[in-house]
Amino acid sequence: MAQSATSSVFSALAQSHQGRLAERVKDLSIHEFIGFLEHTTRDFEQFLKVIDLINNQSLEPMLDELLETFTLKIGQILQADRTTIFVVDDDRQELWSKVAQGGRKQGDTQSLEIRIPKDKGIAGYVATTGQALNIPDAYADDRFSAATDRQTGYKTRNILCMPVMNHEGKVVAIAQLLNKLAPTAFSAEDETSFARFAPAIGILLETCQSFYLAARNQKGVAALLEAISSMEQSLNLEVTLQSVMTAARNLMQADRSTLWLLDDAKNELWSQVKSADGGRLIELRLPADKGIVGHVAETAETLNIMDAYRDTRFDPSSDTKTGYKTRNILCMPVFN
Predict the structure, then answer these.
(1) Sign of CA dihedral 140, 144, 150, 156
(2) CA 198: distance to chain centroid?
(3) Cα–Cα distance measured from residue 291 to residue 299, given in angstroms and rounded to the nearest whole number
(4) Which of 273, 299, 269 lies closest to 287 in space, CA to CA?
(5) Element (H, E) at 303
(6) In sequence order, what are the residues at sequence separation of 6 or more whose Cβ sits closer than 8 angstroms to the Cβ of residue 230?
(7) What gap in Å lies between CA 138 and CA 158, rounded to an integer?
(8) CA 271, CA 73: separation in Å to the nearest integer?
(9) pTM, full prediction
(10) Three-state DSSP class for 307?
(11) What CA–CA distance (Å, rounded) separates 112 from 99?
(12) pLDDT tens for each residue of 213-250
């Protein structure tokens, strides 16, 4: 059977022209048609394996481990003290990465997702322009922000920041290396060494990003079904709120989630949250125009706040009442 007739059925189905697949198949002999069916069956089997993988809870940890492996190996090859791979998220116009951090239990570790605007800082410049940056003195470069150094106590001396592209020449990731483990800064030879394996990594990272998006969408569907199921099982408002927000918390990988309801009669926003020790429920009430939730209730705007205590709209009274410490917030309006 000719290769043109046996190429993946999914490639043909992905085309926008109706009848393309039928046109390819209509002139096949019985022997060729049987071969086509066998080939298509193998394609579907592979497709179902991929779908099963996306539904599998182990997919995200596996992709995290792959990203960590690339990061460690690149740092080893180029002799960097610290290495970060930022993957480009075009939908959100952000760069994201996963870094390992200590878990709540001793000896436990978990991945922390960090996100930065796609056009900010050294990595943002490389992502936007596609040009590599080899900076021998970080503090002498206007594009460098020392904020992270101040927060962590780390001192960045030199930086090598390289774009990772797919086979179409599109930037899909950024490799950022800090502090060469040698008296000198990063060299042109380091850039050449990275360029040797960057294309293969680009294809793999782009594939990983596609899997992440598919897995995230699948999680959204699962969370929605779970929330609907909880509403069907109970008419108790307290039980329903807790079930819905548990699903939202798991979906967004948040430590806490709260659904504030608008009380038009009292012009207040109210909710019930657990105390810091989880031992009791506490009712919270705020004026409908105060704080982060009040701003969102009034404007219907989404707020994504990286540092709650630096935002003048944040009201710390809930933290004071519950003993909880809020670090960052995603606050979104819910419409009828």
Answers:
(1) negative
(2) 21
(3) 12
(4) 269
(5) strand 303-305
(6) 239, 240, 243, 244, 247
(7) 5
(8) 48
(9) 0.57
(10) coil
(11) 5
(12) 666 666 666 666 666 565 555 556 666 667 777 777 77
